[in-house]
């Protein structure tokens, strides 16, 4: 449907609504007003292109991944492997390192650079084993008082038979619960794609940041288009409708801040992107330093419990 | 004598495509058909093959709760349209339609009740309201149910039936995952139990949040319980799916459930649990 078709159908609905005497005074009244506002907005047709540019940059094949950042801003990096139960998931890496002289625990999704690595790491889509590994490292962080950094970059949790059999939904739920229980400072940054449950599983943090060109969404634009428009090719339209870009996420109160990227996007200068990201992460952790653990947890839960809009 | 038949078949130029849609009272598994009152008195379970039809939230509450004990809460919480979302139709239009069709304000009904004399808080989802999808209003109502349980010091009984997060609220519906998880954590900190009954289907965002955090988790027979449904798994990975992929029976085998309890036995099962936790 082109935007003029959309406009026409809106107008049709609007005139239909105003002729409904039965339901005046109920929700439909508000609906009529909203339809009018949507019409105005359609005519402006503001920054849909900018949103799609974010989607493309967030998935840029040269964009720095978690390990690129780790190599640039963590000293003494020790990667921790395996969930102690079943496997080691390459799509979600965990470890300990030192950020500007302070030991931190880091968990992050990792996509692959070449074809083989991409397959090995399932394109950054973690199995339940990945989230089990993350929970294991969160426990270490809690026990030793290490702040936790999460770097989110995944199209979503892996959608496979084994992943379901191993309890994908439960793993994502329990990973969030674990993060909601921590009494150490936590900061998350979406560094590429923040896709759905697989992303939020490691992003229940005191501070949630997003890089300028990252996206954070409930479903991939293609998935949304396939369900609501019944055509995956309408991804651009879907993205414009659900607004996964950093500015809108900030506007909706989902994130606490936006991290700048080098001109043209993070892929153009990995070193500069890492410096900017390290500054933001260190700054966030510093601002949380003096808050007692119980208070951190209370505020974190209050923050997430305040999210969402209802009438 | 072989009769000479006149072919009276009319060929429709624009014949509607043949549909395999059955009457909602026809059992999709064995084809048995029931009157409304037959289904209601059998708790919407097929008397012939045991298939569990969808059960509306209010009917389920009436079945679980002691007569006259249910007091609904948070009735004023309704969905809003933060993104002014428009796909093929405006989100507000879909909401109005769902309200008119279901007689519900949202996809979840919460409130206080007693089961077999035990005070509980109930949070029961209804799949017929936009596929039981979780947006801001569902997240808020569930969270308030947790708070109400904490305030009264009673267990929370949750019945889930949902296709996942409500896409029309975009990222804010994803945020209902951590929101409801935090609410359950508050409940757990108060040392109060949550019992979850998973009805068909319990998928995606709801499975990946509060539905998976019950102290005791049971499911109805044949319920689909999956983070990613069979169609998407098939399309994305081209894997061969096992016959019972994602069904309650498979989830029980893999250790994700405590039991599969047929609907007619659930009330007694829940009463037994409530006695143990009391």
In terms of topology, how is this protein built?
The complex is a heterodimer of chains A (311) and B (278).
Chain A (H helix, E strand, L loop, with lengths): L2 H16 L8 H18 L3 H11 L7 H8 L1 E6 L11 E8 L2 E8 L5 H6 L7 H17 L3 E7 L6 H5 L2 H14 L4 E10 H5 L6 E5 L3 E3 L3 H9 L5 H8 L3 H6 L5 E3 L10 H19 L4 H13 L6
Parallel strand pairs in A: 3-4, 4-5, 5-6, 5-7, 6-8
Antiparallel strand pairs in A: 1-2, 2-3
Chain B lengths: L35 H6 L15 H8 L6 E3 L17 H12 L5 E8 L2 E8 L10 H17 L3 E7 L7 H5 L1 H14 L4 E10 H4 L8 E4 L5 E2 L3 H8 L10 H6 L5 E2 L2 H15 L1
Parallel strand pairs in B: 3-4, 4-5, 5-6, 5-7, 6-8
Antiparallel strand pairs in B: 1-2, 2-3
Helix pairs in contact in B: 4-6
Characteristics of this structure?
heterodimer, A: 311 residues, alpha/beta, 2-enoyl-CoA Hydratase, Chain A, domain 1, 2 domains, eight-stranded mixed beta sheet, 14 helices, globular, B: 278 residues
What does this structure look like?
The complex is a heterodimer of chains A (311) and B (278). Chain A has 14 helices and eight strands. With 311 residues, chain A is of the alpha/beta class. In chain A, strands 1, 2, 3, 4, 5, 6, 7 and 8 form an eight-stranded mixed beta sheet that branches. In chain A, helix 3 (48-58) crosses helix 11 (235-242) and helix 10 packs across helix 11 (235-242). Chain A is globular and about 65 Å long. The model of chain B has no long low-confidence stretch (mean pLDDT 93). Chain B starts with 35 loop residues before the first helix and ends with a helix. In chain B, strands 1, 2, 3, 4, 5, 6, 7 and 8 form an eight-stranded mixed beta sheet that branches. Chain B has helices at 36-41, 57-64, 91-102, 136-152, 170-174, 176-189, 204-207, 230-237, 248-253, 263-277; strands at 71-73, 108-115, 118-125, 156-162, 194-203, 216-219, 225-226, 259-260. Chain B is α/β, with parallel strands linked by helices and 278 residues long. In chain B, helix 4 (136-152) packs parallel to helix 6. At the A-B interface, helix 1, helix 2, helix 7, helix 8 and helix 9 of A face helix 3, helix 4, helix 5, helix 6 and helix 7 of B.
């Amino acid at each position: 449907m082109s935007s003029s078709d959309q406009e026409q159908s809106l107008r049709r609905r609007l005139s239909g609504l105003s002729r409904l005497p039965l339901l005046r005074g109920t929700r439909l009244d508000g609906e009529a007003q909203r339809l009018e506002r949507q019409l105005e907005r359609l005519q402006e047709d503001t920054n849909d292109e900018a949103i799609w540019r974010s989607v493309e940059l967030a998935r840029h094949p040269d964009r720095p991944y978690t390990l690129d950042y780790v190599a640039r801003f963590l000293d003494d990096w020790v990667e921790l492997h395996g969930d102690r139960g079943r496997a080691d998931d390459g799509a979600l890496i965990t470890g300990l390192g030192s950020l500007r002289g302070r030991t931190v625990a880091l968990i992050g999704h990792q996509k692959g650079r070449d074809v083989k690595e991409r397959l090995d790491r399932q394109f950054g889509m973690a199995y339940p084993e990945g989230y089990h590994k993350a929970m294991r490292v969160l426990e270490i962080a809690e026990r030793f008082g290490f702040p936790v950094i999460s770097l989110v970059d995944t199209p979503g949790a892996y959608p496979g038979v084994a992943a379901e059999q191993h309890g994908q939904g439960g793993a994502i739920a329990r990973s969030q619960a674990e993060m909601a229980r921590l009494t150490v400072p936590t900061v998350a940054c979406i560094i590429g794609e923040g896709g759905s449950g697989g992303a939020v599983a490691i992003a229940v943090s005191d501070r949630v940041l997003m890089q300028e060109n990252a996206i954070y969404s409930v479903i991939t634009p293609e998935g949304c288009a396939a369900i609501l428009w019944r055509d995956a090719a309408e991804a651009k339209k879907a993205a414009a409708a659900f607004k996964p870009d950093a500015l809108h996420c900030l506007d909706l109160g989902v994130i606490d801040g936006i991290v700048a990227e080098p001109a043209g996007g993070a892929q153009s200068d990995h070193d500069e992107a890492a410096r900017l990201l390290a500054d933001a992460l260190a700054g966030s952790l510093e601002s949380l330093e003096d808050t007692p653990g119980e208070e951190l947890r209370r505020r974190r839960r209050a923050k997430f419990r305040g999210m969402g809009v209802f009438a | 004598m072989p009769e000479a038949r006149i072919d009276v078949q009319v060929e429709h130029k624009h014949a509607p495509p043949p549909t395999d849609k059955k009457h909602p009272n026809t059992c999709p598994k064995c084809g048995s058909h029931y009157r409304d009152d037959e289904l209601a008195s059998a708790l919407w379970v097929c008397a012939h093959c045991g298939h569990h039809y969808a059960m509306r939230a209010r009917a389920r509450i009436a079945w679980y709760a002691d007569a006259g004990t249910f007091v609904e809460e948070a009735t004023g919480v309704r969905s809003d349209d933060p993104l002014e979302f428009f796909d093929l139709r405006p989100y507000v239009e879909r909401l109005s339609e769902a309200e008119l069709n279901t007689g519900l304000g949202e996809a979840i009904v919460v409130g206080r009740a007693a089961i077999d004399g035990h005070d509980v808080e109930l949070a029961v989802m209804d799949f017929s309201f936009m596929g039981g999808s979780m947006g801001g209003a569902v997240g808020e109502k569930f969270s308030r149910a947790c708070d109400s349980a904490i305030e009264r010091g009673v267990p929370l009984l949750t019945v889930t039936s949902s296709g996942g997060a409500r896409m029309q609220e975009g990222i804010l519906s994803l945020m209902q995952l951590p929101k409801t998880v935090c609410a359950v954590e508050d409940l757990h900190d108060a040392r109060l139990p949550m019992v979850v009954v998973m009805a068909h289907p319990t998928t995606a965002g709801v499975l990946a949040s509060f539905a998976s955090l019950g102290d005791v988790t049971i499911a109805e027979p044949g319920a689909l319980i999956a983070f990613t449904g069979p169609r998407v798994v098939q399309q994305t990975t081209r894997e061969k799916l096992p016959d019972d992929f994602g069904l309650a029976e498979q989830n029980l085998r893999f250790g994700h459930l405590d039991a599969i309890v047929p609907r007619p036995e659930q009330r007694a099962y829940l009463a037994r649990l409530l006695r143990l936790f009391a």
